[in-house]
């Protein structure tokens, strides 16, 4: 979009160098930051860093971010996501512990942000943190990610290596039609692709529950090449959420594979 110089915007008064890290961005936001810095396409994104006072100044910046998007797409909707400092890490994922809100209208964004902050104090977060030996104050350190929703034709998850047996010569993709929430929540069996990381051969394909679209070869070939770059960028095997919109791959989230 023309008005926005960057697809990734840090809100507040601090410069990028002061907040560009896990301690101030949390796992989800930092993953998006690395994706953007390395040239991968992400949605238009704004981040409220950890420790930033959620006051009228921040709300004004959020409002400006949202208005700039709506000026170029009046039908745009938004996602509001937590980005905990202990979330999406190498050893702990906190997956599903904090709140995420999708298809949020402009007038509901402030409430969604407040609910994300509140979710850091939930019983499920405290119970998981206690199980993993994480101090309560660390569990509550959270940034907020606000993004323009992608009008997804297909969505899914890409693993840069096989998450079952750790085979680093394979890229695994699971994909569904539309948004990926039905995959993440386990509502539906996705299409399954097992691809050779080295030469792009489709080693295995298992169709899922849906009769709609499947990933085009040029899409999963691009993702296979991206997988090799992503491992170098993050110095880790990765679990990447994505959407495909009009043939363009948009990366939504990046976290280390915690199972291998």
Automatic annotation (TrEMBL):
<protein>
    <submittedName>
        <fullName>Pyruvate phosphate dikinase, PEP/pyruvate binding domain</fullName>
    </submittedName>
</protein>
<dbReference type="GO" id="GO:0016301">
    <property type="term" value="F:kinase activity"/>
</dbReference>
<dbReference type="Pfam" id="PF01326">
    <property type="entry name" value="PPDK_N"/>
</dbReference>
<dbReference type="InterPro" id="IPR002192">
    <property type="entry name" value="PPDK_AMP/ATP-bd"/>
</dbReference>
<keyword id="KW-0418">Kinase</keyword>
<feature type="domain" description="Pyruvate phosphate dikinase AMP/ATP-binding">
    <location>
        <begin position="53"/>
        <end position="258"/>
    </location>
</feature>
<dbReference type="InterPro" id="IPR051549">
    <property type="entry name" value="PEP_Utilizing_Enz"/>
</dbReference>
<dbReference type="InterPro" id="IPR013815">
    <property type="entry name" value="ATP_grasp_subdomain_1"/>
</dbReference>
<keyword id="KW-0808">Transferase</keyword>
<dbReference type="GO" id="GO:0005524">
    <property type="term" value="F:ATP binding"/>
</dbReference>
<keyword id="KW-0670">Pyruvate</keyword>
């Amino acid at each position: 979009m023309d008005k926005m110089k960057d697809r990734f915007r840090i809100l507040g008064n601090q410069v990028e160098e002061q907040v560009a890290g896990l301690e101030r961005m949390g796992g989800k936001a930092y993953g998006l930051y690395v994706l953007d810095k390395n040239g991968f396409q992400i949605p238009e994104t704004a981040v409220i860093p950890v420790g930033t006072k959620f006051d009228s100044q921040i709300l004004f910046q959020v409002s400006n971010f949202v208005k700039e998007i709506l000026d170029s797409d009046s039908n745009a909707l938004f996602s509001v996501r937590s980005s905990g400092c202990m979330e999406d890490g190498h050893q702990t994922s906190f997956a599903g512990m904090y709140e995420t809100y999708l298809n949020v209208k402009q007038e509901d964004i402030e409430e969604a942000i407040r609910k994300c902050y509140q979710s850091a104090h939930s019983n499920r977060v405290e119970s998981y943190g206690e199980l993993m030996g994480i101090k309560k104050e660390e569990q509550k350190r959270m940034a907020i990610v606000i993004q323009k929703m992608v009008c997804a034709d297909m969505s899914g998850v890409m693993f840069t290596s096989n998450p079952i047996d750790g085979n680093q010569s394979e890229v695994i993709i699971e994909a569904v039609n539309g948004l990926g929430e039905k995959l993440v929540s386990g509502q539906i069996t996705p299409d399954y692709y097992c691809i050779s990381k080295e030469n792009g051969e489709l080693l295995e394909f298992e169709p899922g529950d849906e009769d709609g679209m499947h990933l085009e070869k040029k899409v999963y070939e691009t993702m296979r090449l991206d997988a090799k770059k992503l491992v170098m960028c993050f110095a880790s095997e990765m679990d990447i959420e994505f959407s495909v919109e009009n043939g363009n791959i948009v990366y939504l989230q990046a976290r280390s594979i915690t199972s291998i």
